From TrEMBL:
<dbReference type="GO" id="GO:0046656">
    <property type="term" value="P:folic acid biosynthetic process"/>
</dbReference>
<dbReference type="GO" id="GO:0046654">
    <property type="term" value="P:tetrahydrofolate biosynthetic process"/>
</dbReference>
<dbReference type="Pfam" id="PF02875">
    <property type="entry name" value="Mur_ligase_C"/>
</dbReference>
<comment type="similarity">
    <text>Belongs to the folylpolyglutamate synthase family.</text>
</comment>
<protein>
    <recommendedName>
        <fullName>Dihydrofolate synthase/folylpolyglutamate synthase</fullName>
        <ecNumber>6.3.2.12</ecNumber>
        <ecNumber>6.3.2.17</ecNumber>
    </recommendedName>
</protein>
<dbReference type="GO" id="GO:0005524">
    <property type="term" value="F:ATP binding"/>
</dbReference>
<dbReference type="InterPro" id="IPR001645">
    <property type="entry name" value="Folylpolyglutamate_synth"/>
</dbReference>
<keyword id="KW-0460">Magnesium</keyword>
<keyword id="KW-0547">Nucleotide-binding</keyword>
<keyword id="KW-0067">ATP-binding</keyword>
<dbReference type="InterPro" id="IPR036615">
    <property type="entry name" value="Mur_ligase_C_dom_sf"/>
</dbReference>
<feature type="domain" description="Mur ligase central">
    <location>
        <begin position="45"/>
        <end position="265"/>
    </location>
</feature>
<dbReference type="InterPro" id="IPR013221">
    <property type="entry name" value="Mur_ligase_cen"/>
</dbReference>
<keyword id="KW-0436">Ligase</keyword>
<dbReference type="InterPro" id="IPR018109">
    <property type="entry name" value="Folylpolyglutamate_synth_CS"/>
</dbReference>
<dbReference type="GO" id="GO:0008841">
    <property type="term" value="F:dihydrofolate synthase activity"/>
</dbReference>
<feature type="domain" description="Mur ligase C-terminal">
    <location>
        <begin position="307"/>
        <end position="422"/>
    </location>
</feature>
Length: 438
């Protein structure tokens, strides 16, 4: 990509890939004449799992209501452009190479060689880019944590959204659910409504305390708003009334919760006009790649068994594994097939905690390494985690090789295959299959 060399240069400006803090970001934005203060209304989204899907529902609903929506998410799967969506009437478009390179170059010049992380530059580029294009809303995803994340320079969003909080990134956010929730709740601003997904009691207590300190109205799942599944439809209810909506297009019971969180957010604020038809259309049409995504035809799918199902999910922590396993359980109830899990993970993840979710669904795990990714988990460690759960495990040199192995096995019923464990692995799969996000 044209901006690849620029990204490589910027990556050399700080010795650490992740260094949480706001000072460098604040200085750079000052030099850029504060583009973050020139944005349309911002909805800021933090949490451990479900951030991307919730943003996908928010975007789809707002666009269905006729709004232009800028979106910044991370990480990308195949191309950096995926992180930057520019709002347009009728639906947003990914920023093209030229305008994205120009934004990075402006940020690089303003930074003048000072230490800064790549994510900080990426976030500043989003603010710079979005401030130059008119829109009605900005959807902003936290990169890591919240309190000290580069996105947390937005002084007054119209809503702070917190998706389910779980154990992840403990080396940066602390070892306990309480400490992680404290970091996530750091996006809460004084007087700004907080919309909160269902949480473990320990996490919810921290979020409630932070909202109280900031005098921020708190809208909690199961308290101020409710979402349920009735006759296959999404039923949402709050003090303003009831919405009976079509099921989410995204697969899995957890997607009803993510969609409900998006609906609750837009009903808790007055910044946007959204009618019932837009809620219905948005929930039913939202797309988000690598979240229980069934892969379509392509070179990689062709390596697998003829007629088999191949699913892709970027889940990489225990809770991500739980929701993927629950979705697989739903699939098994509909059509029973033998399940094979192809998994590759990063070395800083809890492989046993992730794989334990699949122990009752399959005994066949194929471990792979994530290609061209520093910090990928070694195969022997991943395989030891599976063996510790009494799972049958073998290794393969690549996802393609793993699919060929499954294709050679004698199944009476065509198998169901899940490729999972990392968004980095998911990006490789989408690229290899010729089906990148757009």
């Amino acid at each position: 990509m044209p901006h690849g060399d620029l990204i490589a240069r910027v990556s050399q400006l700080h010795p650490k890939r992740i260094d949480l803090g706001l000072e460098r970001m604040q200085l750079l934005l000052q030099r850029l004449d504060h583009p973050e203060r020139k944005l349309p209304p911002v909805i800021h989204v933090a949490g451990t799992n479900g951030k991307g899907s919730t943003i996908a529902y928010l975007r789809a609903i707002l666009e269905a209501a006729g709004h232009r929506v800028h979106v910044f998410t991370s990480p990308h799967l195949v191309r950096l452009n995926e992180c930057y969506r520019l709002g347009r009437i009728g639906g947003g478009v990914l920023a093209d190479d030229a305008e994205l390179s120009a934004a990075f170059e402006r940020c690089e010049r303003a930074n003048a060689g000072e230490p800064i992380t790549l994510f900080e530059i990426e976030t500043a580029a989003a603010f710079d880019l979005f401030a130059r294009h008119p829109a009605d809303a900005v959807l902003l995803e936290v990169g890591l944590g919240g309190r000290l994340d580069a996105t947390n320079v937005i002084e007054r969003p119209v809503a702070s959204v917190i998706t389910p909080v779980g154990i992840d990134h403990t080396e940066f956010l602390g070892p306990s659910l309480r400490s992680i929730a404290t970091e996530k709740a750091g996006i809460i601003k004084r007087g700004v409504p907080v919309i909160c997904a269902q949480q473990e009691p320990e996490a919810l207590a921290e979020i409630e305390q932070c909202a109280k300190r900031q005098r921020a109205a708190l809208h909690r799942a199961g308290e101020e708003w409710h979402v349920s599944v009735e006759r296959g439809r999404l039923v949402y209810q709050d003090e303003r009334g009831l919405l009976d909506l079509r099921a989410p297009r995204l697969f899995g019971r957890h997607q009803f919760d993510n969609a409900g969180l998006a609906v609750a957010t837009l009903r808790a604020i007055d910044a946007f006009r959204v009618d019932a038809a837009a809620f219905e259309a948005g929930v039913a049409t939202a797309e988000w790649p690598a979240r229980m995504q069934r892969l379509g035809p392509g070179p990689l799918v062709d390596q697998g068994p003829a007629g088999g199902e191949i699913w892709l999910d970027g889940g990489h922590n225990a809770e991500g594994g739980r929701v993927a396993a629950a979705a697989l359980g739903d699939l098994e109830e509909r059509v029973s097939r033998p399940l094979v899990v192809i998994v590759g993970m990063m070395a800083n993840k809890d492989a046993a905690g992730f794989l334990a979710n699949f122990a009752g669904l399959t005994r066949h795990i194929i471990a792979v390494t994530i290609p061209d990714r520093e910090g990928a988990m070694p195969l022997d460690r991943l395989m030891d985690a599976a063996r510790g759960l009494s799972m049958r495990v073998e290794s393969a040199a690549s996802v393609e090789a793993a699919l060929r192995t499954v294709a050679q096995l004698a199944y009476e019923v065509r198998p169901r295959i899940l490729i999972t464990g990392s968004l980095y692995l998911a990006g490789h799969v989408l690229a290899a299959n010729g089906t990148p996000p757009n």
